[in-house]
User: Which sequence fits this backbone?
């Protein structure tokens, strides 16, 4: 529930526009998370390993934090001006190059910001200005961050997947999206389904076919959307992985035998189901003549 007067301050399309603009700002922060969080994780792992192995302390510079340190060019390290850092428009204004060293700026920045704006708008269009809409934004933003991190580093940080899992279970206490029983079963089915595939593949081949972070991500999606979503998410993510991975190999953007991150495909399939799952299922059943 929300204050009716507050919601009525803008028409529905106005709130969708606000969500899109706010999504651009959040997308800019998510780019920072995608780039800096893995570096901070690696730094802490090295520190912990040295402590456990009782190795000599190394004076290693700490990676920049997620909030305090200002943005800078990854190449020349020059601090970016505020007008260069405007989400999406700053990249377009600079034509994708650093103002100071003219090094090309990754297209990741505008793509993440644009995706965050579009998905934030879709969430508010679907759920409105409500608790479900606010929680949905957190859900979408978390999946965008996980997608970017896994795509770049093949890591799915526990610091994002586990809070997402627990938040889904807590929201189910109030039945915000699904009942608590469905959330608990969905989390268990999501985790155990990929866990079983992992161990079966390892027993048959002696190799690890996926990371443990994939189990936790699918468990989190199950906590938010219930067990009915698990099979469609697995099928769609597998199909996307085969199509995109095959396309990248044909285009020689990815070498055969080199591991490919599966988390982005799970996240994309989860977003599709979260935003349009029942509609897609209804359309599929109609196409197959099952309704």
Assistant:
């Amino acid at each position: 529930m929300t204050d009716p007067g507050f919601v009525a301050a803008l028409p529905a399309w106005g709130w969708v526009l606000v969500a899109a603009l706010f999504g651009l700002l959040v997308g800019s922060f998510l780019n920072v998370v995608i780039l800096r969080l893995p570096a901070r994780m690696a730094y802490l792992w090295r520190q912990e390993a040295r402590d456990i192995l009782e190795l000599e302390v190394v004076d290693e510079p700490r990676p920049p934090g997620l909030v305090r340190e200002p943005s800078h060019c990854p190449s020349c390290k020059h601090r970016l001006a505020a007008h260069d850092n405007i989400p999406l428009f700053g990249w377009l204004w600079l034509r994708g190059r650093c103002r100071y060293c003219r090094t090309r700026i990754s297209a990741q920045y505008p793509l993440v910001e644009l995706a965050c704006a579009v998905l934030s708008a879709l969430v508010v269009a679907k759920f409105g200005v409500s608790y479900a809409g606010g929680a949905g934004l957190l859900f979408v933003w978390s999946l965008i961050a996980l997608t970017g991190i896994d795509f770049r580093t093949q890591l799915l940080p526990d610091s994002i997947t586990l809070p997402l899992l627990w938040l889904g279970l807590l929201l189910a206490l109030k039945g915000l999206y699904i009942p608590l029983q469905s959330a608990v079963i969905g989390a268990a089915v999501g985790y155990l389904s990929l866990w079983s595939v992992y161990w079966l593949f390892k027993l048959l081949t002696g190799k690890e076919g996926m990371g443990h972070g994939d189990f936790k991500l699918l468990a989190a999606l199950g906590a938010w959307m219930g067990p009915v979503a698990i099979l469609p998410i697995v099928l769609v993510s597998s199909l996307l992985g085969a199509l995109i991975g095959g396309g990248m190999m044909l285009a020689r953007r990815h070498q055969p035998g080199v591991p490919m991150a599966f988390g982005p495909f799970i996240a994309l399939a989860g977003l599709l189901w979260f935003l349009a799952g029942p509609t897609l299922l209804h359309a599929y059943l109609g196409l197959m003549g099952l309704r």
